[in-house]
Amino acid sequence: MKNKVFVKPTKGSLVAGIIVAAAMFIFGLIFIGLLREDNSQIGMIFMVFWLFAMLIIIGTFVYNLMNYDKSTSSISGEEIDLPDSFLSNDKKTDFDERLRKIEKLKNEGLISDKEYNDKRKEIMNEKW
């Protein structure tokens, strides 16, 4: 069975996105003015698309910020599948990993035999 998790942007990232997109929009307005002076048709067409894209991005960020505290269906986000092991309370895996970790620390000389034995005894006494 897969677990579904909905991931949405934070409020701070939405505000930052609005600021950056607004700056890019202003850049586009300035650049389109420079292109008008040079009479560059291709550049003007590109900048019209640029400005349109920036308006869509700004609108999306503003919409998401306004609907942030509402249901997940009203905000853009990503629904991802997590494996069962990610959310399970499987103590056995954690137990195995912890024992292997302290054994590796002992073998590398990072902890003494006494520290290893004390920690191993502590892990073994836990319910598993």
Question: Mind explaining what this structure looks like?
Answer:
This protein has 2 domains: 3-84, no CATH class; 89-125, no CATH class. The relative contact order is 0.14. Helix content is 69%, strand content 8%. The protein has 128 residues and is mainly alpha-helical. α1 packs antiparallel against α2 and α4 runs antiparallel to α5. Strands 1-2 form a two-stranded antiparallel sheet. The mean pLDDT is 83. It is elongated.
Layout: helices, strands, pairs:
Elements: E1 3-7, H1 11-38, H2 41-66, E2 78-82, H3 84-87, H4 91-107, H5 113-125
Helix pairs in contact: 1-2, 4-5
Distance between the termini: 23 Å
Tell me the series of helices and strands, N- to C-terminal: EHHEHHH
User: Ranges with pLDDT <50 over ≥5 residues?
Assistant: none
Looking at the structure, what is the overall shape? elongated
Proportion of strand residues:
5-15%
Arithmetic mean of pLDDT = 83
> What kind of sheet is the major sheet?
2 strands, antiparallel
How many strand segments? 2
Percent of residues in helical segments? 55-70%
Widest β-sheet, arrangement of strands = 1-2
Helix count, DSSP H or I runs of 4 or more residues = 5
Summarize the structure.
The protein has helices spanning 11-38, 41-66, 84-87, 91-107, 113-125; strands at residues 3-7, 78-82.
Notable characteristics:
single chain, 128 residues, mainly alpha, 2 domains, two-stranded antiparallel ribbon, 5 helices, 2 strands, elongated
